[in-house]
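Retro notes
What went well: the complex prediction finally ran end to end.
Inputs used:
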Amino acid sequence: MKLLDRLPKLPMPPWRRGAATAARPWRRAAAAPAADTLLLAEYAGPDGLLAAADRVRRADWADWDAHTPFPVHGMERAMGLRPSRVPWYVLVLGLGGAAGGMLLQWWVSAEAYPLVISGKPYFSWPAFVPIMFECGVLGGALGAVAGFLAESRLPRHHHPLFESARFERVSDDGFFLSLGAAGREEGDRALRLLEETGPARIERLDAAGVAEVPAGGPGRGRPAPGAAGAGGAAPPERRVPPEDAP
Amino acid sequence: MSHAPARRLSAAEVSLPERHPLRKAGLVAAAAGALAVAAVLALAAGDPRQALASYLVAFLYWLSIALGGLFFNLAMLASRAGWCVVVRRLAEHLAGTLWLYALLFVPLAVGAAYVWPWWGGADPAADPILAGKAGWLDPGFFWLRSAVYLAAWALLGWWFRRRSLAQDASGDPGVTRRLQALAAPAILVYALTQTFAAFDWIMSLDPHWYSTIFGVYFFAGQAVAIFSLLALLAMALERGGKAEGGERRPGPLAGVVTVEHYHDLGKLLFAFVVFWAYIAFSQFMLIWYANIPEETVWYAHRLEHGWEGATWALAIGHFVLPFFFLLPRGVKRKRSTLAAAAVWMLVVHYLDLYWLAMPAIHPEGFRPHLLDLVALLGIGGLALGALAFALARPALVPIGDPRLPESLSFENM
């Protein structure tokens, strides 16, 4: 047993519960029960993935995401993603930076250490505009980085999908769709939905590990462990156990 | 990248239809414009200073848009841009109307003594500064320089348009390579001529005053104007005339220029709104900081004596409002909001040029005159007529350009 596993387990924060969800993670994570099964479908190219994303969106599946090696045009529409909230971080931090820059100069030049420079008033705002501008740019840039990290739930050290060896190709030439499901019955529905989209292959990631689902009807995959099959059982705290788990 | 299959366009698909309203509008505008310009020049007999100053501002306004077309075309060629090919022909057509301004400059060349205060020369004892500039501010040299600028622009606009039109038939990618290679030196010619034209025609209205950034300021206004006008022109050409039944027909650019191209034009418009403010403030701050009377006099005119309202209107209308309005992504991706921003920028661009030139004519304060409007509409009518003439026959999209498929399927991230 690893040392980490002996430590008392903390409850998962709500935003970490769903798999890497797509459209509204803050909503869905609360609504959907925690997934104990991930289905990973691989497609031959971006066109197949786009069609599959369109199908899954119309099925109104709660917990899913697409994974591609490069940004695919039209994916936002196919997935029904809402506009990014990052611009709001940029706006607020940009304006805050500009206001802070101006305030700092006003305080330094007119309040804390008033000094007459070339016969101008202490608060000579035109001279302060370039620094205000730069502070605004700095705030906006930091806001873009912070907003991106916050909205993407980063930094994050591990993701259950990394257990799949095939998934490594997502940074090279692999096009994937992942569906999170809670319980045996929902897992079967997810599998049926994915098989409709014609993927090249499907993998099931659950407490038992990673297994390829052979082509054919639902239920032909490896039987899920007893606890998950009961439906109402409490989901395991870690969706994919460490290698030395029983 | 894109998943759409490569599209090809035929000249017939993207030419102005026989019954497109722009044809008639161009004729009517040209006729009315000629009348209005004639009226302004006739009234110059009574009040030559006002009439010619109004004429100068209107001339600069429409010239700056056509020059913006030249800039857009050259910059896009030099940077080998692919996204803009579907709108590049419109800029080529606009630059192709630059010959008109060589004709329209004639009244200003003839009546220069009424407009430019240095025309009569200066007494070295009374005005040593002006006397020191007599070598440059010399009528003969002024005419010569103006002729060089106007000839260079007309030539560049005509040549780049002609070569591009020839490519429509041949489809020879070598034409694009040659235009790209020549665009870089042409930009140099454009930059120098438009800088010195701004010095000669606008800055010398206050002959004591000088600002080395002035040419860049004039350019920034052109860029704002061209991105606005290209968006509006493409939207106008997305609409066709009314069919017999009364329903609207799609125009020649419908389905060719898409929301993705408007988004990029909007982004560039936004960028140059900021660039204009950056340049305008740079000019102001250095002069304000140094506080040397011979430099501050220009701003003293504009921040006091009844011009302060125009100055603040310009700062807010040309920067603050459009900056926040154009900030959201959705505004640039919606035709109606982008069109509103474009119309607004074209209005405040006129205010910008008016604010540059008119305080020299009316140092006593902001005095709008009916002739300002008549001259603006008159030269505008002629400009629209020349543009409609240029647009009438050839394809509205460079169908022989090897980057056209890339542009047709262009998508923003």
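What we learned: Chain A touches chain B through 16 residues (CB under 8 Å).
What to try next: split runs per interface for comparison.
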